[in-house]
Amino acid sequence: MRFVYADNAATTPVSPKVVEAIIPYMTEHYGNPSSLYEVGQVAHKAVEKARQQVADALGADSKEIFFTSGGSEADNWAIRGAAALGAKKGKKHLITSKFEHHAVLHTMAALEKEGFTVTYLDVYENGIVRPEDVEKAITDETCLVTIMYANNEIGTVQPIAEIGKICRDKGVLFHTDAVQAVGHIRIDVKEQNIDMLSLSGHKFHATKGIGALYCKKGLRLPNLIEGGAQESGRRAGTENVPGIVGLGVAITDMCEHLEENAKKVSALRDRLFEGASKISHSRINGDTEHRLPGNFSMCFEGVEGESLLLMLDFKGVCASSGSACTSGSLDPSHVLLSIGLKHEVAHGSLRLSISENNTEEDVDYILEVLPPIIDRLRSMSPLWDHILEEEKELN
Ligand SMILES: *Cc1c(COP(=O)(O)O)cnc(C)c1O
Questions:
Q1: Sign of CA dihedral 131, 137, 141, 144
Q2: Catalytic residue at 318?
Q3: Rounded to two decimals, what is the model's pTM?
Q4: Residue to probe by mutation, ligand 1, list 147, 175, 203, most atoms within 8 Å of CB
Q5: How open is the CA angle 373-376-378, to the nearest 5 degrees?
Q6: DSSP track, 45-69
Q7: DSSP run (H or E) holding 29
Q8: Does residue 105 line the site of ligand 1, with CB under 6 A?
Q9: Cβ atoms of residues 299 and 282 within 8 Å
Q10: 70 ligand 1 Cβ < 6 A
């Protein structure tokens, strides 16, 4: 049986280049970057090289890059930090969207309990925030706008530069969770007026547990972890040297091949859409144009998402119904509900996220196994019978 990994939005395999680059930092270059002797200084130089690589990938300065344990930590730091700065000036209003990652939404919920108010912007049927809505929502009390760069479930890419411009003009801080975008879409934090940006290594072939926050010069966020002088004293703790080295290598590699990868990956993704759209009672979730190259997201009526995933797994296909973080709960994804899908439709969702490691054969295999699985699930589903009966009545 074939094995097809099509869940690259959940995590990616570490690339051989990254593996090769990080091994020496676990063996001969094991020093603590803060130590003054040679093995320490070799590690220190490697950390600073990676910081420069991350900065280059974003159009930032290396002093603006702070390593974190990943995307969730960077999101928490940016949002809580901006909220704390705002509160000092009596500004306790934040703006975000309804379909952010839980690292953002749960931070917002916690802040609401602490007395902040939060506006959750609509993302409409196409899964895209409207810049004019951001503009209208900003008040004198607003201390932060945070809108994700690209959605992790339906892949829609947001008008980040326009939102950035509005925030800059209004003097409001702008953060973006770019975890799904970095390495896949060209980003320039200066051109796009981004004040803070979160990224995570394991979404683009670096290791898990490493990420970064870009925080523009002059914006002094409160320290996240008190202790030593690492990360300019703002996030103490001995650096994850192998993780950081791998992050630098991975981001450089992805940015060097970005257009070429996007072309290949989006062609595979479109082939999937074309094939799967032939299945009756199916729909594509989110805008088809402003979309991550590798994101496929569809709903199949009369199908239960979890069963669909299990049956795909039996056929060797790794897929997801929404985000890995919500699986295990029976509620339909907040993302699919935010674009107006009914609960029963949202339950039948399938996300496939393609990477440059996938092939046409992978796609054709998915298209071979998917339709019979859906037929089989529908044949066992009372919901499907109900859908067909309702249609008969209408005709
Ligand atoms: C994966 C993901 C995160 C979380 O990143 P971790 O490094 O796993 O903490 C945050 N936001 C988005 C959009 C993601 O896809």
A1: negative
A2: no
A3: 0.97
A4: 203
A5: 110
A6: HHHHHHHHHHHHHHT--GGGEEEES
A7: none
A8: no
A9: yes
A10: yes
**Is 148 touching ligand 1 by the criterion CB < 6 Å?**
yes
Mutation to probe ligand 1, out of 77, 104, 180, 292 (largest number of atoms < 8 A from CB): 180
Distance CA 156, CA 394 (A): 34
- φ, ψ of residue 351 to 5 degrees: the values are -115, 125
* pLDDT confidence of residue 245: 98
Beta pairing, strands 211-215 & 65-68: antiparallel
The protein residue whose alpha carbon is closest to atom 10 in ligand 1 is 71
Take residue 39 and report the two structure tokens written for it. Answer: 């093995």
Query: Between vectors from CA 203 to CA 273 and to CA 191, what angle results, nearest 5°?
Result: 90
Q: State residue 344's pLDDT score.
A: 85
Alpha-carbon gap, residue 140 to 171, rounded angstroms? 10
Q: What is the pLDDT of residue 1?
A: 85
Instruction: Look up tokens 């930032």; give the residue.
Output: 60
Locus of tokens 């199908």: 303
Per-residue confidence (pLDDT) for residue 394, from 0 to 100: 85
- The tally of CA atoms less than 13 A away on the side-chain side of residue 356 is 17
Which stretches of the chain drop beneath a pLDDT of 50?
A: 323-327
Give the pLDDT score at 240: 98
Q: Is the CB of 211 under 6 A from ligand 1?
A: yes
How far apart are the CA of 360 and the centre of ligand 1, in A? 28
Of residues 353, 346, 226, 238, the one with CA closest to residue 283: 346
Q: Which atom of ligand 1 is nearest to the CA of 10?
A: 1
Q: Is the CB of 12 under 6 A from ligand 1?
A: no
pLDDT at position 330, please? 64
Determine the pLDDT at residue 343. 87
What gap in Å lies between CA 59 and CA 139, rounded to an integer? 30
Q: Which atom of ligand 1 is nearest to the CA of 200?
A: 7
Find out whether 86 and 143 touch, Cβ atoms under 8 Å: yes
